[in-house]
Every structure is written in C-alpha cells, then in structure tokens.
UniProtKB/TrEMBL annotation, chain A:
It holds the Pfam family TolB_N. The keyword Amino-acid biosynthesis does not apply. Keywords: Periplasm, Signal. It comes from the Bacteria. It is found in: Periplasm. This is Tol-Pal system beta propeller repeat protein TolB. Belongs to the TolB family. GO terms for biological process: protein import. NCBIfam families: propeller_TolB (TIGR02800). It comes from SAR86 cluster bacterium.
From TrEMBL, chain B:
CDD domains: OmpA_C-like (cd07185). PANTHER family: LIPOPROTEIN YIAD-RELATED, STATOR ELEMENT OF FLAGELLAR MOTOR COMPLEX. One of its GO terms (biological process) is cell division. Keywords: Cell cycle, Cell division, Cell outer membrane, Lipoprotein, Membrane. This is Peptidoglycan-associated lipoprotein Pal. One of its GO terms (cellular component) is cell outer membrane. It comes from SAR86 cluster bacterium. Residues 55-167 form the OmpA-like domain. It comes from the Bacteria.
Length: 424, 167
C-alpha cells in the first residue's frame, strides 16, 4: 500500500512541471549545425537535447542535427566546410564531455564560423553530476553569446506561482524553475494566495505578497536558506513589492492613508518615504534600470494609466506616460531603458504591449484575451507573461525578434512569472 | 568536495577567465567557467486561523454583500438598501466587530484589483461610519481577484465577483 501511494506522489511531481512548446520562430534565423557531443551517450544525449531546445526557444536559430547534414566531422581538422556552405549553415557547434567521475563533470565546446572556415570560440565548463541541466544551459548561453553578441538567458531562472487542488484543498506554491520550465523547486507552500513575486537584483532573495496572516502582507525570503521576514510587521495591509536596482530599497503599496499609495522602504534602517499623495489608487511600482525613476499605475485620470516619477526631482508631479486606451497597468522598463512593457486593454481584451520611448504609439505583443503580469528577461530580449485559455492559465513568451513559445502546466494553474537576473 | 575553480567562479568575474583571455593570441574567444547553481530551501506558510463571528451576527450580516460596476467602488442605491440592515444590526449589537473584505473580478492586473477591492471595502466602511457605526469596529481588507466566487469569463460571473462582503 505504501509503495503504491509513493508511486502516485512521484508521478504527481513529474506532471506538475512545465512543458516547452515552440509555436513560432523568428523571421531571419541563424542556421547552425549542432554536432552530437562525444562522450558517454546517456549524458551527451541529454546535453544536446537541452542545448537544442534552449537555442530553438530564443527563436533566432534554425538548427541542423546530424541526420540533416551532408557530412559529419569526427574532429576539428576533419570539417568539410563546403558541405555546410551548401546547406546555408552559418556556424557549426562541436563539443565533448571532458571529464566524468562521481563528483565532477566537465564539457568543452567549440564554435566554427563556416564562411570564414575558422574556429571562433573554444570553451570549457566545469560542473557537477546532478547539475547537468545547468551545465547544458551554460553551454547554450555561450553559443548564443558568441553568435549574437548578446547575453543568453538559458541559465537564468523563473519564479512563479502555481495553484493546484489536492483532496479538495487548494494549494498555492511559489516555485523557482529553469528558464525552460524544468527543474521546478518549491520555495513556499501555502493554503492562502501568493501574488506579486519579485527577485532581488542579486537573485538571492525574493519578495512576494502572501495572504497567510489573513490579509496581504509582503515577505522577503532568502532562497538558499528559506529564511523569511515579514516587511513592516506592525503595519496593516501591504502589497506590490519592487526592488531598487541596487537592492537597498523596496518600493511598496500601503493602504493606511485611506487609499493605495506608494512608499519606499530603506531595507537597512527601515525608514519609509512616501512617494505618492493622491486620493486615487497608486500601485504596481517598478524601478528604472539606473534607479532614477519609478513607474507606477494610477487611477488619477479616471482609469488605470502608467505614470513616472523622477526620484531625483522628488517634489515634481508624476508624469503620465500612457495615453492610448483606457487601461494601462503593471509597467516595467526594458533593461536598455529604451521603452516599457505593460498590460494594455484593447476593446475587451487584456494584452501585453510594448512602447518605445521614442515612439508615440503602442505595439501589442500578444493577442489573446486575458494576458497579464509580463516580466522581461535580463537581456531584455524575451518577455514572459501569464495567459488564460479555456479557463486554464499558463505561461507564454515572446521574443523581441518575433518568436513565440509556451510553457503549459500539465496540472493546475501557473501565473505571475518573474524573471531572475543573470546568474553566470 | 569543493573544487578550487568552483570557489573562484562563484563571483561574477573569475581571475581564471581573465588570464586565459589575456594570454590568447588568436582572435578566437577562449573561456572557462564553473556552473554555479545554489540550493533552494522549501518553506511552508503558517496560515492563521481567523476568528469568526458568533452565530447570530453571522446570520444577520451574511446577506449584506454588495456589488459594484467594473473599475468602480461607488455604492449603488441597491447596495445602500442592502447595507441598511447591516447598520441596524451593528447598532443593536454595539459590541460586535466586523471585517469587510473587498473583491474584484479577474480582469486586469492583480495588484490594481487588490487596491480596487480595498476601495470597495472602504466604501462600505465609510457608509457605515456616516450612519453611526464607529470605524474602530470595522476592519477592512482586500482579496483583489484572489477569491473568486464565480469561475466563468462572462459578464454574469464577473459581476458576481465585484463585491464587498461582511464577515
């Protein structure tokens, strides 16, 4: 009987992981040949498979595997570049497992430029056996960086909330997973809702809103130790936490003034500074990449719109920055500072939209009915958000290069994604 | 077993990488790094058991739920009628304290809906206060869209969710 139950539990764990589904690629991808890594087949198969998926997900690559090639090199000197030029391939990736024992695993990989007929990168990655996925993600990022010149996000993490029903009871989990939705680990389990999770700038802590005490309160939890502290324990309701880029401040929404107002908390000395002062709702604060401005959602014009406060000109009035449509909320800045991403209501649909600072119009990025909580990858290239389809919620992503992918949950619901910073 | 290279590479920049890059004389990019994947600790939230009202007051106040228009926290005349009995009940039993929880439908962002739910609950508290029920007897909080009562995506479901309840 016991064995039966533990088997059931095990399968439950497997099915709660997310599954990658790539629905659309970019218009002008790089063509690359991914040669199977040499070494113990069981390990290299998994590594190659993860690299393949990681690179496909960026939407910027068309990947040729061995079966699609005219010739397969067995070593560096052996590469027949003509065979690759014929297929229109731009780069070749080769690699091998260089060491494998009980405690260490390492791999090396090489990138060749086909046109130049030259090796342009050789890299070595040191890892440990039970962190195989992360090793593969590091390789994917190295390949991505060499070819595109941009930092990759395969080795970064996602933070999100899941909701499941177990035995008629609702369970909320705050979860950390790899950027492809695998390797889910639970940070917090609760029978009450968890919302607004957000990473600290060094990606070592998370802040979130939990209803476990009977009302919305903000907690900060250290990932490695599980240590938690409630923010402003003696205050009443608090929500919408957002970290300053230097990690020293947390902007929050407090409700003590009779309506939602934004405050900034100095995490070291616990000093609170009030930022907004208006009878309308002011919430969903988020900091600009250099920490000089805070964007927030305010109902002061009659409906939710995005506003900006320059922290260096404290007393100046918040500046309204969205004018199209009657619902614009939950804004966040692109890491380059070139624009913002937010939730925009168009007719009766809530979608994720992008607005560049030097343009006056909004660019819709998604097109279903109930898209919410966008979060931008640290390289500014990918936006992940929650979508509701057929009554089920799941995570979906778009890259600025036009690719789309989906991470559907196999059981329960998934929402409120937040992308970590770079971990390498 | 801790590998020296692992320790060095825990920080963002590793002396190893710099050394190798400096020594490389071709135009090829040569790098070395160690995978760092810190551990994660799971914690369980300790959910408070909320004290509920006594039997009588529950019965009296149970039907005092009021509803709102989209993105609004204004009390309709129907709501005001509903609340009249709540006012009477509160005045007759001057010792009871209540909690008003505000809610929103699932459309729009969660935090904005949390604030909207709060405004709705406050509208009810303000109405009670204007009619002689002291604010000190009324606790106000919001669940935003986190406690939907109707699961559908149609207006009929949405309208059931845009509410303030007395518990």
């Amino acid at each position: 009987m016991k064995i039966f139950f533990s088997l059931l539990f095990f399968t439950q764990l497997i099915f709660s992981e997310l599954v990658l589904e790539i629905t659309q690629g970019s218009e002008d991808p790089y063509s690359i040949a991914l040669i199977e890594f040499s070494g113990s087949k069981k390990i290299t198969n998994e590594i190659n498979s993860i690299i393949n998926t990681d690179l496909l997900r960026t939407g910027e690559f068309k990947i040729f595997r061995e079966s699609q090639l005219l010739s397969i090199p067995t070593n560096e000197e052996d590469i027949k570049f003509e065979d690759f030029k014929l297929l229109g391939i731009d780069f070749i990736i080769t690699g091998s497992l260089t060491n494998e024992d009980k405690f260490n695993i390492s791999a090396s990989y090489q990138v060749f430029n086909v046109q130049k007929e030259k090796k342009i990168r050789t890299s070595k990655i040191f890892g440990i056996p039970n962190k195989l996925r992360q090793l593969a993600h590091y390789i994917s990022d190295g390949i991505y960086e060499e070819i595109t010149g941009l930092k990759g996000v395969a080795s970064t993490k996602l933070l999100y909330v899941t909701e499941n029903i177990n035995d008629d009871k609702i369970i909320f989990n705050l979860v950390v997973a790899d950027s492809d939705g695998s390797n889910e680990q639970i940070l917090l389990k609760s029978s009450e809702p968890i919302i607004s999770p957000s990473w600290s700038p060094d990606s070592k802590k998370v802040a979130y809103v939990s209803f476990e005490t009977g009302m919305a309160k903000v907690f900060i939890q250290t990932i490695a130790t599980g240590k938690r502290e409630m923010v402003l324990e003696n205050s009443s309701q608090i929500s919408s936490p957002s970290w300053s880029p230097n990690g020293k401040f947390l902007s929050l929404t407090l409700y003590q003034d009779g309506n939602a107002e934004i405050y900034i908390l100095n995490l070291k000395n616990q000093n609170l500074t009030r930022l907004t002062n208006h009878y309308a709702i002011d919430t969903e604060s988020s900091w600009s990449p250099n920490g000089s401005k805070i964007m927030f959602t305010s109902g002061r014009s009659g409906s939710p719109q995005l506003y900006e406060i320059n922290l260096r000109k404290f007393s100046s009035k918040p500046k309204r920055i969205t004018f199209e449509g009657n619902y614009n909320a939950k804004g966040s800045y692109l890491s380059s500072g070139e624009g913002i991403v937010f939730v925009h209501r168009s007719e009766n649909n809530f979608q994720i939209a992008l607005k560049y600072t030097n343009e006056s119009f909004i660019r819709p990025l998604t097109n279903s009915k109930l898209d919410e909580s966008p979060s931008i990858s640290p390289n500014g290239n990918v936006i992940i958000y929650a979508i509701t389809e057929n009554g089920m919620s799941m995570l979906s992503g778009v890259t600025l290069s036009g690719a789309k992918f989906r991470l559907p949950a196999r059981t329960g619901e998934v929402r409120e994604p937040s992308w970590s910073g770079f971990l390498r | 077993m801790i590998n020296i290279k692992n320790v060095l590479n825990k920080n963002f920049f590793s002396p190893f990488v710099f050394l190798i890059l400096l020594n490389s004389c071709s135009s090829m990019n040569v790098t070395e790094e160690s995978v760092y994947d810190g551990g994660i600790q799971t914690v369980e939230a300790s959910v408070k058991d909320n004290t509920s009202l006594n039997y009588e007051t529950k019965a009296i106040l149970a039907n005092a739920t009021v509803y709102f228009e989209f993105d609004s926290f204004k009390l309709s005349s129907k709501s005001i009628q509903t609340l009249r009995s709540a006012v009477t009940a509160m005045k007759e039993n001057s010792s009871i304290k209540i909690t008003i929880s505000g809610h929103a439908d699932e459309r729009g962002t969660r935090e904005y809906n949390l604030a909207l739910g709060q405004r709705r609950a406050e509208s009810v508290r303000d109405y009670l206060a204007v009619n002689g029920v002291s604010k000190s007897r009324v606790l106000v909080k919001s669940y935003g869209e986190e406690r939907l009562i109707a699961e559908g995506s149609d207006e009929s479901s949405h309208s059931k969710n845009r509410r303030a309840e007395i518990n």
